[in-house]
Specification:
It is a single chain. The protein is an alpha/beta fold and 751 residues long. The chain is 44% helix and 7% strand. The strands form three sheets. The protein has a ten-stranded parallel β-sheet with strand order 3-4-5-9-10-11-12-13-14-15. A three-stranded antiparallel β-sheet has the order 6-8-7, with no helix packed on it. Strand 1 and strand 2 form a beta hairpin. Helix 11 packs parallel to helix 13 (455-465), helix 17 (526-539) runs parallel beside helix 20 and helix 18 runs parallel beside helix 21 (588-602). It is elongated, with a radius of gyration of 35 Å. Pfam families: LRR_Zer-1, ZER1-like_2nd. Belongs to the zyg-11 family.
Length: 751
């Protein structure tokens, strides 16, 4: 198979960074006084490594629930003589004032603070210490960074006070930030005077004022010779704004897009405005007018459109004003406008809602700072994946994964993203996906399940997990998946469909896995959870998939796992078994699952005395005659009794029924089975059967074991012959043939 781009292994740098961050004490650090991390004195790290450590740390805290953040992490980078930082990207609640304060001696060149709501005006003062080196700065969404604690001496009347009695800082400016070229002030709070703030900056190249309402932007012309990128997303524009923009002749990227759902905008785009941009901004290579309503028709009448292949040549443009472009745009944002559906659009990349390519471009362009737009774009992708076939699957998957990671706490993105993942990971796309990519999907799905108790997200996530091979593909997150599913099943109010999918997943997870996995899951409360579900169903007198899957899951989790068998007995499992048998006498699948489980319990010598009651033995004996599910119920009942008989007559501590009578019924049952029966059972080991061969105390147990082996190796030779040989069955059978106590027909079968 061709190697996929996403399949290349992580770089050694990435692996080492990840390892060090997860094991700081064992690698770069030691603990001082059992609480503070300190760097080992002989460690010196260049900025290439330190930047990666900080940026990866932020990613891990954000996307890996198992990763524990360290209170004193940023202090590791407080001394530029041993650790150098240059370009760092910090996000959300992870960063507080003291963290920035800790690294204030570093000569930062690039500092992105995105949605860091915990930062206050203390951090504004810290920024000043980077002023002589900083080239790029983003304060996007740092909504409290211009607030400080109210000064004790009371507040002047002109102070703006927010609810926590904090005061807006009025006197901060970018004075002294002589090298600053790129600045993002997106979602800055009202009340800060942007013009005064920015005036000291000599030569700005890029400015982002997303979500800020400014009636007068005339001050922008002071950078008309340097400004190459301007973003005014969601700013309500006017004729004055347009005139100012037209003077910024060096602009290469202009974004005046808006979210058409967010609020009422008076401004409407016209042919004249677009003409003005095309004529004046001659260097323009990227323009975003997404979400705008066109006041008049800017399109070329369709009869004049040059038909034939779609063209990006400006001369053929279906959008009239763009016929004046010298060359096609690199990017044109037309998301949620009518223009994106036209034939000839003069741009290499277009964001829109017309087709898969445009939708993916939209997700790519807006994910980081515009989750409100991204969730609608992902919704469109969901429809494409559901109804048509995705032609750019890997790109689509990676973009959705990135969006889900980036906006872990945004409900809309979690709902639409988890739904899209379900369709993007289903079997028809399976071949195109690498192990690495599929693991990334599982990680974001589990993050979603963890953060959201919301029904739609939970259901989407559970359904997506069903697209994976279980347990193999989930093995690397085994504990976590089980914990999350048990969590869902233990909630008091439950959605029927989620319950059904979760039980199905739990069952699949404990099927065909190692015993240490089963023991670990047992300790998490798996047995108890399943029994509670069964109890609820019994009370409602319903035997549905949940009931059957729950018993099946108990059958799987008790397989060769004595601790879990014991838990089943301790939590009144036998009482539930009898009640289910009585309530649902006709349910064959259910009987098979319950008896399979009791077969596992009966294999544990220490637990067998608990099965030795008149009531249980009578029930097992009567089930020998059952024709439910072929021979399965009868076979399993006989298996349970075979183990009990193996303990000898002295262990038979009951008067009724008599041991001989039960033995007779067992012989009759075994003789009634068709030796070529196809089976509904799966053995990982023959050990519990083989231990019934070398003994003379219960010939009927010996016969049941021999019949079981004979049936399995003759009906499924490829699977079970190697297992029989590997586990030493051949010499045991040979020895048994020589035993005087063995019955003739048993020896025949053994031969």
């Amino acid at each position: 198979a061709p190697r996929m781009a996403s399949d290349s292994p992580e770089s050694l740098m990435t692996l080492c960074t990840d390892f060090c961050l997860r094991n700081l004490e064992g690698t770069l650090c030691y603990l001082l006084d059992n609480e503070t991390l300190r760097l080992h004195p002989d460690i010196f790290l260049p900025s290439e490594i330190c930047d990666k450590l900080v940026n990866e740390y932020v990613e891990l805290v954000k996307t890996d629930s198992i990763f524990e953040p360290h209170e004193s992490f940023f202090t590791l980078f407080s001394d530029p003589r041993s650790t150098r930082l240059a370009r760092i990207h910090l996000r959300e609640q992870i960063v507080q004032d003291q963290d920035l304060e800790a690294i204030r001696k570093q000569d930062l060149v690039e500092l992105y603070l995105t949605n860091c709501e915990k930062l206050t005006a203390k951090s504004l003062q810290t920024l000043v210490s980077f002023s002589h080196t900083l080239i790029s700065l983003s304060l996007f969404g740092c909504c409290n960074i211009f607030y400080e604690e109210e000064n004790p001496g009371g507040c002047e009347d002109d102070c703006l006070v927010n609810p926590t009695r904090q005061v807006l800082v009025k006197d901060f400016t970018f004075e002294g930030f002589s090298r600053l070229r790129f600045l993002n002030l997106g979602r800055l709070i009202d009340g800060v005077n942007v013009e005064t703030l920015l005036r000291p900056l000599a030569s700005l190249a890029a400015l982002d004022l997303s979500g800020i309402q400014l009636n007068d932007v005339g001050f922008l012309t002071q950078w008309k010779d340097t400004l190459v990128s301007l973003v005014l997303y969601n700013m309500d524009l006017s004729e004055e704004h347009i005139q100012v923009i037209a003077q910024l002749r060096k602009l290469r990227h202009l974004d005046i897009s808006r979210d058409h759902l967010s609020s009422y905008y008076k401004f409407k785009l016209t042919r004249r405005v677009l003409n003005l941009f095309v004529e004046n901004l001659v260097n323009l290579s990227s323009l975003d007018i997404s979400g705008h309503t066109m006041l008049e028709n800017c399109t070329i009448p369709s009869m004049e459109e040059k038909m034939g292949q779609t063209s990006i040549e400006p001369a053929k443009s279906s959008i009239a004003p763009f016929r004046g472009l010298k060359r096609p745009l690199q990017f044109l944002g037309l998301f949620e406008t009518s223009l994106c559906r036209l034939t000839h659009i003069p741009a290499y990349k277009v964001s829109g809602d017309k087709n898969e390519e445009q939708v993916l471009n939209a997700i790519e362009a807006y994910t980081e700072h515009r989750p409100e737009i991204t969730s609608r774009a992902i919704n469109l992708l969901f429809d494409i994946a559901r109804i048509e076939r995705c032609s750019q699957l890997l790109r689509a998957l990676q973009l959705v994964i990135t969006a889900l990671r980036c906006h872990k706490d945004d409900k809309n993105i979690q709902v639409t993203g988890s739904a899209a993942l379900f369709y993007l990971t289903n079997s028809e796309y399976r071949m195109e996906q690498s192990v690495k990519l599929r693991r990334q999907v599982i990680q974001v799905v589990l993050n979603g399940m963890e953060s959201y108790q919301e029904v739609t997200v939970q259901r989407n996530c559970c359904l997506t997990l069903c697209n994976f091979s279980i347990p193999e593909e989930l093995e690397f997150q085994y504990r976590r998946v089980n914990e999350l599913l048990l969590n869902i099943l233990n909630q008091s109010r439950q959605d029927e469909s989620i319950q059904r999918i979760a039980v199905h997943l739990c069952n699949a997870l404990v099927c065909q896995v190692d015993n240490d996995h089963k023991e670990a899951v047992g300790k998490m409360g798996f047995v108890m959870t399943m029994l509670k579900l069964i109890q609820k169903k019994l009370a409602d007198k319903t035997c549905d998939q949940v009931m059957e899957f729950s018993w099946s899951a108990l059958w799987n989790i008790t397989d060769e796992t004595p601790d879990n068998c014991e838990m089943f007995l301790n939590y009144s499992g036998m009482k539930l078994f009898l009640e289910c048998l009585k309530e649902f006498p006709e349910k064959q699948e259910l009987h098979r699952n319950m008896l399979g489980l009791l077969g596992n319990v009966a294999e544990v010598k220490e637990l067998r005395p608990q099965l030795m009651t008149s009531q249980f033995i009578s029930v097992f004996s009567n089930l020998l005659e059952s024709k439910a599910d072929g021979i399965e119920v009868s076979y399993n009942a006989c298996g349970v009794l075979s183990h009990i008989m193996f303990d000898g007559p002295e262990a038979w501590g009951i008067c009724e029924p008599h041991r001989e009578e039960v033995v007779k019924r067992m012989w009759a049952a075994i003789q009634s089975w068709d030796i070529n029966s196809r089976r509904n059972i799966n053995y990982r080991s023959f050990e519990p059967i083989l231990r019934l061969l070398p003994q003379g105390i219960s010939p009927v147990s010996q016969h049941w074991a021999t019949w079981a082996l004979y049936n399995l190796v003759s009906v499924y030779p490829d699977k079970y012959c190697p297992l029989l040989i590997k586990e030493g069955g051949i010499p045991l059978l040979k020895d048994m043939i020589k035993m005087a106590s063995a019955r003739q027909e048993t020896k025949e079968m053994a031969r």
